[in-house]
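Recall from the previous lesson that a structure prediction takes nothing but the amino acid sequence as input. Here we apply that procedure to Molybdenum transport system permease from Shewanella benthica KT99. The sequence below is the only information supplied.
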Amino acid sequence: MDWQALWLSIKLSCVTVIILIPFAILASRFLAYHHFIGKSWVEALIMVPLVLPPTVIGYYLLVGLGSQSWLGRFLEQVLGQQLVFHFSGLVVASIIVNIPFAIQPIQRAFESVPQEVRDAAACCGMSPLKILFKIELPLVWPGVLTALVLCFSHVLGEFGVVLMMGGNIAGETKTVAISIYDSVQAFDFASAGQMSLVLLLFAITVLALTTSMSRRLGRAHGSRHS
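The prediction returns the following tokens.
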């Protein structure tokens, strides 16, 4: 069992979720409540990581953020290190790949909030920020929870884009998915089986807990307004 790789994957998942979810809440709210020219194209662009192979996304990130590109050289000067083959590069790649998993559930949750509720809150003198925190977020919490779990679980098992962007550096970019691949390549099926079982049990447990919590939140919200 490669505990170092597992810990690195958990760390990557946590950092990605902490950065991505607040951005996803704001972006989802904007997309849910505003109609503008080109909105369908924006939503299509958000969904691209779902249909493109992770290795394709990893390739473009590798080329776009590498030291051979102007953007990569600029970021290296600003940050003092290159993103490619570094943990920070994995964070950037994970955020980009998981944008649809974060935005879609939250956007659908915001779209389900009745316009009358927001209008009533505004008539009571509540500011937009107060409406967001006091009215909307409690209503869309199941969508936020779903997005959080989907992103965390997806990052935990991500392979293609992580391998392309970060390589296979122990303690820096070697995640549990890459460790499983290395174990299989070395015919160490016992270790690969252990790590695969951990990911499988984690996925089942988290999805079950998320479903249960979403149902409880839904029932609590329904009883509160009945």
